[in-house]
Design goal:
About 50% of the residues are buried. This protein folds into 2 domains: about 5-210, MFS general substrate transporter like domains (Growth Hormone, Chain: A), CATH 1.20.1250.20; about 245-445, Up-down Bundle (Growth Hormone, Chain: A), CATH 1.20.1250. It is globular, with a radius of gyration of 23 Å. By secondary structure, the protein is an all-alpha fold. It has a two-stranded parallel sheet. Helix 2 packs across helix 7 and helix 4 (about 90-105) runs antiparallel to helix 8. The chain starts with 5 loop residues before the first strand and ends with a helix. Helix content is about 80%, strand content about 0%. It has helices spanning about 10-15, 20-55, 65-85, 90-105, 115-140, 145-155, 155-175, 180-200, 205-210, 215-225, 240-245, 250, 255-285, 295-320, 325-340, 350-375, 380-410, 415-454, and strands at about 5-10, 235.
Length: about 450
């Protein structure tokens, strides 16, 4: 081992630099990854009318196919967590992109509900494994002054992907058939995976934590600061040594982080339950108040439109105020919007405005949860923490539509459905307040132990 003459804290170094073209490249790649991830996740929904007619089955029978995709997303995220630490985050991201790209192309061969469901399950596993790594990569290359905003910014790729899927489906399906949607959904991630393989680095703190060769770390830092020399430099992290001794699941479920982990899972699960319930059943609920299908659909789109404003706004606020309080307040705002909306059955304009407010709070908060997890866990558990939170939370995406169908079957009133959703969203807010309290106690305990050893 060569002698080193100086030590460089990589986190502090990134914080002190301007945001360079190389970091812009990472941002764009992560944004596109999220966009194509969501494109593939929602693609089957845009071809259901065509397939139902071609296969002579009812649209309702595609419910299990869509559930299989969501289940795959959850399983993929849970599997990816340990793999991020056993292999490396970038390797998992690229392999996952190749996987869901090939499975998307394979979807073109489906000729029944069963085969379609299997292909969507496999595609979902790849999708769920790729997404958490994007948040980790962006978090570790973003200066602290703007990391919340940038991590949230890549999350907005979700809306771009969903919108692009709708526009592409409308343009290509009538002329080239339903398979054309999955050709694009398969080729694009494979191409982007190749680009990311050569154009993006491994997460910086991951390389330092795993004691990668100094010249490989220096090569990445030179792309951020070309004029600086890193000869004879030893790269370190500012995290305490205890946080670097464990990795992956052992960190996420360790005594110090266990309570916060459970609260993150609870918050994401509750939020996903309400969000997917609203996506699936809001048009039907609004139509039940006397609105037309077009009016109900337009009102529902405000849920996502509010999410854009919420995601960027919360990213800015988390950089300036306590992030747990910011997201808890966002969930509370979303819950208030939902509750008021439930009492506007005869006023479509006010109902739409309340849905927009709910979108700012709920959609924006969900889009901010990846940063919340990234900032909560140390480097050794960051990727696993994000992926497991999303994996557990996505089961809410399965529960939500089922709960909505049950309430409609039991003839719950319009206001009652919205009141129940409000309570679930407020449970997400309460979970984050409990996470904040648990984190404060854990930090105080660590400080006390350090003081005693000193």
């Amino acid at each position: 081992m060569p002698n080193t003459s100086r030590t460089l804290n990589v986190q502090q170094f990134i914080d002190e630099q301007r945001f360079t073209p190389y970091q812009w490249c990472i941002l764009i790649c992560c944004f596109l990854l999220v966009a194509i991830d969501v494109y593939d996740a929602v693609a089957v929904g845009f071809v259901v009318p065509v397939l139902a007619q071609a296969w002579n089955v009812s649209k309702a029978e595609f419910g299990l196919v869509m559930s299989a995709a969501v289940f795959g997303l959850a399983i993929g995220a849970l599997i990816a967590g340990p793999l991020f630490d056993r292999i490396s985050p970038k390797t998992v991201i690229v392999c996952s992109m190749f996987t869901f790209g090939l499975c998307s192309i394979g979807t073109m061969t489906a000729d029944s509900l069963t085969s379609l469901g299997i292909w969507r399950l496999l595609t979902g596993i790849g999708l769920g494994a790729a997404l958490p790594g994007a948040a980790t990569l962006m978090f570790e290359y973003a200066p602290a002054r703007m990391n919340a905003l940038l991590v949230n910014a890549i999350g907005c790729g979700a809306l771009v992907g969903a919108t692009a899927c709708g526009l592409i489906s409308a343009a290509l399906v009538p002329a080239y058939g339903w398979e054309s949607v999955f050709i694009i959904g398969g080729v694009f991630p494979i191409v982007l995976g190749v680009v990311m393989l050569f154009a993006t680095p491994q997460p910086l703190r991951f390389m330092v934590l795993r004691s990668w060769p100094s010249d490989r770390i220096a090569a990445v830092l030179r792309r951020i600061a070309p004029g600086k020399s890193f000869d004879d430099t030893r790269f370190v992290l500012s995290e305490e040594p205890q946080a670097q001794q464990q990795t992956g699941v052992s960190v996420v479920l360790s005594k110090r982080f266990r309570s916060g982990t459970l609260m993150l899972w609870t918050a994401y699960f509750c939020a996903a339950t309400v969000y997917y319930l609203m996506l699936g059943w809001l048009p039907t609920l609004i139509q039940g108040t006397g609105a037309t299908l077009q009016q109900a659909t337009l009102a529902t789109t405000l849920l996502a439109a509010g999410g854009i404003i919420g995601t960027f706004g919360l990213g800015w606020l988390m950089g300036r105020f306590d992030r747990d309080l910011v997201i808890a307040a966002a969930f509370a705002l979303g819950g208030l919007g939902i509750w008021i909306a439930g009492h506007q059955a005869g006023n479509l304009a006010l109902l739409a405005a309340c849905i927009f407010i709910a979108g700012i709070g709920i959609s924006g908060a969900i889009g901010s949860m990846a940063f919340l997890a990234a900032a909560f866990y140390p480097t050794s558990g960051r990727s696993t923490g994000i992926s497991w939170m999303q994996g557990i939370g996505r089961f809410g995406g399965i529960v939500g539509p089922i709960a909505g169908a049950t309430m409609l079957k039991e003839n719950f009133s319009f206001s009652t459905v919205f009141t129940i959703m409000m309570c679930v969203v407020l449970a997400a807010a309460a979970a984050l307040l409990m996470k904040r309290a648990a984190a404060s106690r854990a930090s105080a305990s660590v400080s006390a132990v350090q003081s005693e050893s000193a």
